[in-house]
Request: fold
Amino acid sequence: MSGIGKGVAVASIGRILKSKGFQVTAVKIDPYINVDAGTMNPIEHGEIFVTDDGDECDQDIGNYERFLDESLSRTNYITTGRVYQAVINRERNLEYGGRCVEVVPDIPNEVISRIKKAAKKTKVDESKDSSSPSPDKTGSVADFILIEIGGTVGEYQNLLFLEAARMLKLANPKDVLFILVSYLPIPEMIGEMKTKPTQTAVRLLNEAGIQPDIILGRSKVPLDEPRKRKISIFCNVNTKDVISAPDVESIYEIPINFEKENLGNRILKKFGLRQRRKNLKDWKKLVKVIKTAKKPVKIGIVGKYFKTGKFTLKDSYISVIEAIKHASWYHKRKPEIHWLSAEGYEKNPQSVKELKKFDGIIVPGGFGSRGIEGKIKAIEFCRKQKIPYLGLCLGMQLAVVEFARNVCGLKKANSTEFATRPGRIDIDKVIDVIPEQKALLKEKRYGGTMRLGVYKCELKTGTRSWKAYGMLNYVSERHRHRYELNNEFRSALEAKGMVMAGINPDRDLVELIELKNHPFFVGTQFHPEFKSRPLEPHPLFREFIRAAI
Ligand code: GLN
Reply:
């Protein structure tokens, strides 16, 4: 089932194989019809991750990037929508030579060809604004390609992907290995770990023509020997290939836990390979810090995508959370993250005072008008009370709105995004739609049309951001937005002390703002969180946490 950690398991296996000297890449397959994740509500889907080449994809791609410490591209993400769209387009172009195009084998064949394509590494030329990745000049092909099939075994939605996997194995028996990630519940009334769901899952996989080679047993606690034996006998795998995958405090422990179970070498052995080297040292050091850091740094995230019924979801902001963690561990601190509801500050403006309890505040990305005024109140409080503030995309745009209203005296300042209803057009559009986006919105072309992927940003010498990035003149960061600081208001904002710390040189768009006379007040039009890695925290997060400490 979803949410048991398939993505992190894949990412961890990737890290292990990489540490043993192999080139690794990973592919996520999502069974839904959506062509990409960009048109989905984050509450339902979780975070929409963005790659260098501007793909709006599943958050697991983020996990892969963080664990593999490599940037992936749109070839690493496959959805049912994408597969069918490609096959139908090809049929329309008469590329099937007049024959009948069928679900089997044409759909699984398209899946297989996409998997093979992903094995060839691609690289985005970061020196220019670029949305199309070019094949890596070295033409390198990964030694391992890890493929995660989303969904649950036995459901209709992913059947064709299992079919593709079966066909891939049939064609390359020595090169394909199957790993099942299964959940072993411990019902409270019984107090015993049950293997039956795993047995059933394997039977369902067998029906699809697939026999797992390795089973990862996800559970609250480690699997004991009797459980391993039972799974081995009933599921037809060696006991050594039943890997215990208990809950952990931090997901970064997982590669180390897997290695304790010898998973890496079991995989290599099945392929007739030997490890080329062994190097999880840095990773182990990181995990040590994670486990021993005691002194907290308290960060509040003012958001709106975390309530669903009676549950609180954190998935919508996963890259932001991970970036905070990476930066906190860098400073040997224990990150303590709190969820603050933007709408709460609208209903009860006095409650914004609670922000004083935190060492730093982040307003992350978002869409639509719900909670906007609450976020603006929070930003005003951080600015005035000198609480370190980091605004990400929407958080930058609203920092500009707040500053325009309360410092520049433009009382009607707003973003066009929140004031397009008739009768509300008499606003000062300090944040306005990017010109080329206007036409797209008019034609209702929403899917995959935002300003997406990496764009160049020229840093202003002497600014806080410039120092954070190690005094670089140019950086390149990932974007996902339709609105932008309106250049007509730039000088008015600058006159009152807002610093335009980063500019996209090709389009003259403001990418970074800062305030002086404040311990840390930075807003980014881009999403730095997507590029933060556990062993290499993002410079802006690193400095934000430093200020918070
Ligand atoms: N809604 C804003 C825009 O489209 C901000 C987007 C974001 O925060 N990712 O520009």
Notes: The longest helix spans residues 103-119. Residues 365-367, 393-394, 417, 480-483 surround glutamine (CB under 6 Å).
